[in-house]
């Protein structure tokens, strides 16, 4: 009786504290109070005495700029205080962008311009193959991150919801891959350098997403990213041994 009542109460409190303060990461019951007639009062965090989420008054463009600058407050606003449900679609689109870039580079390296149907079919198959390889590399990268974090801080990922939240954060933080398309459209002599900068930006975004989601210092997310890259490069080496162009 008493134990069940405490369980129900704790679940109710968890539901109520669905938001986070973007400054100190403490849980919050509400972001603002609506006094109607267009009067809103932003809630103040009981822990740090600052507004729980100042971004609810900001224009989405400003929020996006702050996210591009990898500000922790902007990441907390997006991950905890908004109901964004584009994780899967964004991941697929980013993988399509990466597959297209690799497919384009593969076509550039091939001098065969024969318009034969068989050649066109082979080129189409190459695109699907690049999409599959990019997906496997992304998966191995994430697995490396999860293994490292679970090994270093097992108390942080005890619940299924913790894994799901971190996965969503990682998927959202790969948005930088969308820059791959304009990097190729505006092709010039520095395209490889641009692609390298995009890769670094995505890794920094991934690290910030881990840090914000699990409330960690900067060192452990960087270590997790490093181990994820090792696993990803291991998959690349495996494909190269098979004889596939990646």
TrEMBL record:
Keyword Transmembrane helix in record: yes
Protein name per its UniProtKB record: Protein ARV
GO cellular component, one term: endoplasmic reticulum membrane
Bilayer-crossing regions: 127-151, 163-184, 190-207, 219-242
Membrane topology of this protein: Multi-pass membrane protein
Keyword Endoplasmic reticulum: yes
A biological process term (GO) from this entry: intracellular sterol transport
Domain of life: Eukaryota
Family according to the record: Belongs to the ARV1 family.
Entry-linked Pfam families: Arv1
UniProt keywords, alphabetically: Endoplasmic reticulum, Lipid metabolism, Lipid transport, Membrane, Transmembrane, Transmembrane helix, Transport
Task performed by this protein: Mediator of sterol homeostasis involved in sterol uptake, trafficking and distribution into membranes.
InterPro entries per record: Arv1
Places the protein is found: Endoplasmic reticulum membrane
PANTHER family: ARV1 (PTHR14467), PROTEIN ARV1 (PTHR14467:SF0)
